[in-house]
Design goal:
The complex is a heterotrimer of chains A (about 325), B (about 260) and C (about 375). By secondary structure, chain A is mostly helical. Chain A is built from 14 helices and no strands. Classes of the chains: A mainly alpha (about 325), B alpha/beta (about 260), C alpha+beta (about 375).
């Protein structure tokens, strides 16, 4: 397809950069469509999973087993009045949901769905992800601040403090994976696992735990949903948001969840590698495995308290991540 | 909004047809009892000293005639029957020993009742809480009652926890007449009295001297009057009944029917 | 935070030496009356230092509907439906308090079967109320699933009530001198089966919540209420017992049949949120026992209403107290010889417990404050009356 478009553009006699732009747009569109479809599915899945965990059936009326429920909800949200509080900081208030969604979307650039199905295999993929994913917190912080609401402010502060306490251990657990694989490219990491015939989950048992917990905290998902914490902070940073702006946050949340699942699969569970089935299918299975786990956790646990969250981050996860890094380093030096 | 309310206030006094409705009789009562309470004040404001004011029944409308409840200290002064529970006997003995002027008696079951003058309340309260025999550390309830001309009364139900007994009812008649009823606050003795006293102030207009924060609690800050008083008149306009347009109010229903 | 820019400028105040000094400010927040975890229309004002609660106090009255005034205007039997609406989650306990007060004034002897029916339905009510509390408490802590688990079982109890008297929440079932109608065919079997189920469910709840580490860290040592404080502040029911005081009106001043049957009074040790939770869960188990006892000895046939005069004219005053699921409910009833009460004062445990909010929450976090409000089991209908 790349070749086909390139040929067409060449035939039209346009310069090379036009192709780059067109190709980038097409890729962006594809990613967007992928995210939207998955988010629709994920929201439906969340409802179904939570429903069945809670002895309910979840949505049943719209479409087959409520399959179209999310679509209906999206339409409803589209039709809602766009409310911006009069005392809000307008510019920031408007841009925050967009940043949130953009940050979630940017992660997809480097995720390999199969050996070739990847938007851009950056050689600094891991660093890129660490940088881009923390943009989400910036979005939450500005959303909370600009709303000019005390609950939103508290939620925003919580999300910032949560980022600081979890980003460190998250990155450390990524670093030990990179150390093991000898590359920062995500595709390279998957290939390394395939070559070794060994998923990194075996070599990094502590790392998996740290990464899983830290991603859940990064995603602000229950039991770490402090910035939202509906029984404490009403709805935290998103208290003043409604309609489509709120839907952006929702979309960002679920696309980030999917991206986290993908990262988890790539870093520890061998990414697209697996027997018999095509690579992309393997990848999706692993991603959805993680997503299901996250949902399961969300609907089983009470919310953790904010100071316990800090304790967990700094006093448990960080030392564990450091220990994992040390062990990995020794392994690499001795046998590498 | 404010204007409407005040308009109504004047109306409610003037409008004669209010009395036809069920709630209207309060307006009449208010006038009468106001006059009577003034008389009371003239005659020497002795509400708490004579714990049994004479019921003024004669000039009241028969259906709302407020009788003083029958349990009266003077009638039951020596009512400690030999078959009263032991706790009651001990309670009465302890109280009489410490405060000879009090006349506790056996109320019902194992409740002891005593009427305490407002001036003595704090001392008695502290005594019954700290005394080894009584240890009435649990204020179960604090109720204000409006006995119209007999004045306002505060009733304390006290229990000793964890035994559950002895149990004591203290009745205190407020000092200072209806419009300026005062009772000493017991918040420093039983902290739980805090909101109870605020409620009694809010709904009955009993002032508790020494209360740290005597504000309205259930009603709005700007509410006029104390609704649980027997002479209370609602100062708000009556809520107009909402009829659907297709359904005329009963008064002119027939008229419309004829026209159509 | 009226104006965010202004806040920044005040925070960077110039000191004497000309250096900007960063200053923190206390945040006054207004929790409720529209807030997900205020259990109705409670409004809590809190001064926060960051996440820490410096001070908190409740503001009530949003649900005030003059119950006591209405009770002075309606004939004695006609007040029963209004008592339902005070504590709408344990309506039968409320009816019982009122009915007992009137019966005491009138010296009415209630027939044996009616007493048993009252006893059984009242204990069922305690189970239903505690289950609902459990669910709502889980919700306060962010465990949504527990809420639905608890509701499933509460629904079944409500179904029993629906078959019994046609209503699921506000029953209007007790009468002065008895109960409105007799039990329905199959009541005993349904309830016994329900009790068997519930016993299994309690284990399930234990597995889901009690042993959860997060739940433990959220509740143990949070909102500690010492025994002395509890008594001084007039706490009653599970809140008092969690602080280690074995006081239960059902034991201390038995009404209905509580002196006939043996049951335990669960008592906590630390008086924290966790203990309040444990006490309530243990009370469900005790109530199950009591319901079973009551059903065993339920007299077959017999009157359900005493011979009550058509026109009631009690006089005098009395105070009846019962142990509702939330604590000590009292009704101070003054009658003047007419068929309308002269004064009804409702002693509500929630009203008293709400005063504790400041004591419990000072120095804790917002999340703890939510847990504290939850653990007190507030029903605003009863607080505001």
């Amino acid at each position: 397809m790349q070749q086909f478009i390139s040929d067409q553009i060449m035939a039209l006699g346009l310069p090379q950069w036009t192709f780059n732009v067109v190709w980038a747009l097409i890729q962006g569109l594809l990613v967007l469509v992928f995210i939207l479809f998955n988010a629709l599915f994920l929201i439906w899945l969340e409802r179904k999973v939570s429903g069945h965990i809670q002895l309910r059936v979840g949505p049943m009326r719209t479409g087959f087993h409520g399959a179209l429920q999310t679509l209906a909800d999206a339409l409803k949200l589209l039709g809602k009045e766009d409310i911006i509080p009069s005392s809000a900081d307008r510019a920031v208030f408007v841009i925050a949901p967009i940043i949130a969604f953009a940050s979630a979307m940017l992660v997809y650039v480097v995720i390999p769905w199969s050996p070739n199905l990847i938007v851009q295999d950056l050689n600094i993929g891991l660093i890129y992800i660490a940088a881009v994913s923390s943009l989400l917190t910036l979005a939450l912080l500005s959303a909370g601040w600009s709303s000019n609401n005390k609950w939103s402010l508290l939620g925003a502060m919580r999300s910032a403090s949560q980022l600081i306490s979890y980003e460190v251990s998250l990155v450390l657990s990524i670093v030990s994976v990179a150390l093991l694989a000898g590359t920062l490219s995500l595709n390279g990491i998957v290939q390394a696992q395939q070559e070794w015939g060994l998923w990194f989950v075996v070599l990094q048992p502590i790392g998996v735990f740290v990464f899983l917990t830290a991603t859940l905290a990064e995603l602000n998902r229950a039991p770490f949903d402090m910035p939202e914490a509906e029984s404490e902070l009403v709805a935290g940073y998103s208290t003043e948001y409604s309609g489509m702006r709120w839907a952006y946050f929702m979309l960002a949340e679920y696309s980030a969840l999917l991206a986290a699942g993908a990262l988890n699969a790539v870093l520890f569970w061998g990414g697209w590698s697996g027997p018999f089935l095509p690579p992309a299918v393997w990848m999706l299975i692993k991603v959805y495995g993680f997503v299901f786990l996250a949902m399961w956790i969300r609907w089983s646990f009470p919310r953790i308290r904010v100071d316990h969250l800090m304790n967990l981050g700094w006093k448990v996860l960080l030392p564990l991540a450091v220990v994992q890094l040390l062990i990995t380093a020794i392994i690499v030096v001795v046998w590498g | 909004m404010r204007d409407e309310t005040s308009d109504y206030l004047t109306q409610s006094v003037l409008a004669p047809d209010l009395g036809k409705k069920g709630t209207g009789d309060m307006a009449y009562n208010e006038k009468e009892s106001h006059g009577q309470s003034e008389n009371m004040n003239d005659s020497g404001n002795g509400v708490h000293e004579t714990p049994q004011p004479t019921p003024t029944a004669a000039d009241q409308p028969a259906e709302t005639q407020p009788e003083r409840p029958k349990a009266e200290p003077s009638q039951r002064e020596h009512a400690v029957s030999p078959d009263a529970p032991d706790e009651v006997k001990t309670t009465i003995a302890a109280l009489v020993e410490a405060f000879p002027s009090l006349k506790p008696f056996h109320k019902e079951d194992d409740w002891t009742e005593v009427v305490v003058p407002a001036a003595l309340l704090k001392d008695v309260a502290r005594f019954v809480r700290d005394d080894e025999r009584l240890k009435l550390n649990f204020l179960s309830s604090l109720s204000g009652v409006d006995y119209r001309d007999a004045g306002l009364q505060v009733v304390y139900h006290l229990i000793s926890i964890p035994a559950g007994r002895p149990k004591l009812i203290m009745k205190v008649n407020a000092e200072g007449g209806r419009d300026n009823a005062h009772v000493p606050s017991v918040v420093d003795i039983w902290p739980t009295a805090n909101w109870h006293e605020r409620e009694a102030w809010d709904l009955l207009g009993i002032r508790f001297d020494g209360h740290p924060n005597l504000k309205r609690i259930l009603l709005r800050e700007d509410w006029i009057g104390h609704p649980l008083r027997k002479d209370y008149v609602d100062s708000r306009p009556p809520r107009e009944r909402q009829y659907k347009e297709t359904w005329a109010p009963p008064s002119d229903r027939g008229v419309r029917h004829d026209e159509s | 935070m009226a104006d965010s820019e202004m806040n920044i400028s005040t925070q960077l105040e110039e000191t004497g030496s000309g250096e900007p000094r960063i200053r923190t400010e206390e945040l006054l927040i207004n929790m409720g009356p529209q807030h997900p975890s205020t259990h109705g229309v409670l409004r809590v004002m809190a001064r926060l230092d960051g996440e820490k609660v410096v001070d908190a106090w409740g503001d009530i009255g949003y649900l005030h509907r003059c119950f006591e005034k209405i009770a002075e205007k309606r004939p004695l039997p006609a007040v029963i439906p209004y008592t339902d609406r005070t504590d709408y989650l344990a309506a039968l306990s409320m009816e019982l308090t009122y009915v007992l007060a009137v019966e005491k004034l009138l010296n009415i002897e209630v027939p044996e079967r009616a007493v048993y029916i009252r006893f059984i339905t009242n204990e069922l009510q305690r189970i239903a109320s505690h289950l609902l509390w459990f669910g709502a408490f889980c919700l306060d802590l962010g465990a949504v699933t527990g809420f639905l688990y608890a509701f499933r079982d509460r629904e079944k109890i409500l179904d029993v009530y629906e078959s019994l008297c046609g209503a699921r929440m506000l029953y209007n079932y007790f009468r002065i001198g008895g109960v409105r109608n007799d039990l329905y065919q199959g009541f005993r079997d349904t309830v016994l089966r329900l009790m068997d189920d519930l016993e299994k469910r309690l284990v399930e709840f234990d597995n889901l919540i009690t042993s959860n580490k997060i739940f433990e860290t959220r509740t143990v040592g949070v909102g500690v209420l010492t025994a002395e404080e509890a008594i001084a502040w007039g706490a009653s029911g599970p809140v008092l017992r969690a602080s280690g005081i074995p006081y239960d009106i059902r034991k201390a001043d038995p009404y209905l049949l509580y002196d006939r049957y043996d049951f335990n009074v669960p008592v906590g040790t630390n008086g924290d949120v966790y203990d309040r939770y444990r006490v309530r869960m243990a009370e469900i188990a005790e109530s199950i026992k009591l319901v079973r006892h009551g059903l065993e000895d339920l007299p077959r046939g017999g009157d359900i209403m005493a011979d009550v005069p058509r026109r009631l004219s009690p006089s005098g005053d009395t105070y009846s107290r019962i142990e509702s699921p939330r604590g000590e409910v009292g009704c101070y009833l003054v009658c003047d010889g007419t068929d309308v009460a002269y004064r009804v004062k409702w002693r509500s445990p929630c009203f008293v417990h709400l005063q504790l909010l400041g004591t419990l929450s000072r120095g804790s976090l917002i999340a703890d404050m939510v847990a504290n409000i939850g653990s007190l089991d507030i029903v605003m209908g009863e607080v505001d009356r």
